[in-house]
Amino acid sequence: MPLDVTNKRVVVAGAARSGLAAAELLAQRGAHVIVSDTRPEAPEAEPLKALGVELELGGHQVQTFAGADLVVLSPGVPPEQPAIAAAREHGVPVIGEIELAYRWLHGRVIAITGTKGKSTTTALTGRMLETAGFKVTVGGNIGAPLSAQVAASTPETLHIVETSSFQLEQIDAFHPWIAVMLNFSPDHLDRHPTVEAYAAAKARIFENQEPSDWAVINADDPAVLELARRGRAAQRLFARQAPLPSGTGVDEGWIVDRRADRIDRLVPLGAIHLLGPHLVTDVMAAATVGAIVGAAPAAMTAAVDSFRGLEHAMEPAGEVGGVRFVNDSKATNVESALRSIESFDRDLVPIVGGRFKGGDLSLLRLPLAARAKAVVAIGEARSLVRDTFADLVVVHEAESLQQAVRLGYELAQPDGVVLLAPACASFDMFRDYAERGRRFKEEVEKLRREA
Fold first, then answer.
1. Residue 280 has what DSSP assignment?
2. DSSP states of 376-408 as a string?
3. Structural domain total, the chain
4. Are 70 and 91 in contact (CB under 8 A)?
5. Fewer CB atoms inside 10 A, N or C side of the chain?
6. Which CATH number covers residue 68?
7. Does residue 31 sit in the same domain as residue 78?
8. In whole angstroms, what is the distance from residue 301 CA to residue 113 CA?
9. What is the dihedral of CA 307, 312, 314, 317, to 10 degrees?
10. Model confidence over 106-127: pLDDT tens digits?
11. Which segments in the chain show pLDDT lower than 70?
12. What is the Cα gyration radius of the chain?
């Protein structure tokens, strides 16, 4: 149901990308908007003043939140903060940015979540459907926030939305026509109090679906099957390993749609140009959505064939003197780093570390023992990385990413691979994973010029 915010006092918590898009949307819909941020300065929010938006910087003020008619949270803002708790105590509705935007959408939503692979699957799904002739917007947790897509929304629009646990934990009416869950493993335990709380937030993607909707589920992941169990939507399974009597699988070099009476070929495996076998699963998920929507296999194949992956996700970053460099800065949790490491057979030198978000780092021990020549540890988690792996493989500590790249290069010679697979967040050293990935590529380029 659309929100009426005319002349309402709305506080937007967080002046990052999603918060600013929400504030602009609210101002355009007639609300009196206050953007609150803990930073003392937010220059990116200054242009909103022209729309009448107020800025309240340097901390979230309890009286501001408690006196609001509505509070909208950016995904990066923890909902347990005192000001937000005060708003709830005073009966003020608190919702997330995707919930706000959803209330004003005219088109249907295809929402994609999972511990890893969300961005790749979201981007590829958008490309497939656009190539097939559908009107699509792509964004959410990547690209344009959902609030920035409202103006372009029509009844024919398909909104392909990457959704994180932070976004899903603050939904109310958010209702995807197709909900995709790629995988599940412990993550964000620096924000969610328990693994169970993280799982519950993820599972909310299915919460408002009806039997006429679709839940696209990775049947290779028992945790995903369990999280989807209570959903009411029709289930469409995909699996790279588990045999499925019906659903999306692999058969004779093709991703196929297997039915009771026939097998339809969707995308040849030879059209996939992505590093890492785990990314085949992301292509399968996107193809499953394409099959539900009605995209022609030829269009899906063309989209896959032209897709070289996303920046910072198993991205080739160059070669220097026989040593290859791969940027997987988006591998910010243990499970993502595990899949990255397993994509290589030998002579691997991973760069691991940053701000640890929780999980079981020891899951990387056996894969590293089988593949790694050495490990280079960076950031706040250096001692944790050393203590976890030093009895299996030589661990070198680096004070900077520049030092890590150069150490990795020396250790990987003559023909190994230096892989940035941090298994950690970037906030101890960088603004975000993207800045970390860009700096990695810059250091590789400097090394290449010197060599």
1. H
2. EEESTTHHHHHHHHTTTS-EEE-SSHHHHHHHH
3. 3
4. no
5. N
6. 3.40.50.720
7. yes
8. 23
9. 100
10. 999 999 999 889 999 999 999 9
11. 1, 186-190
12. 23
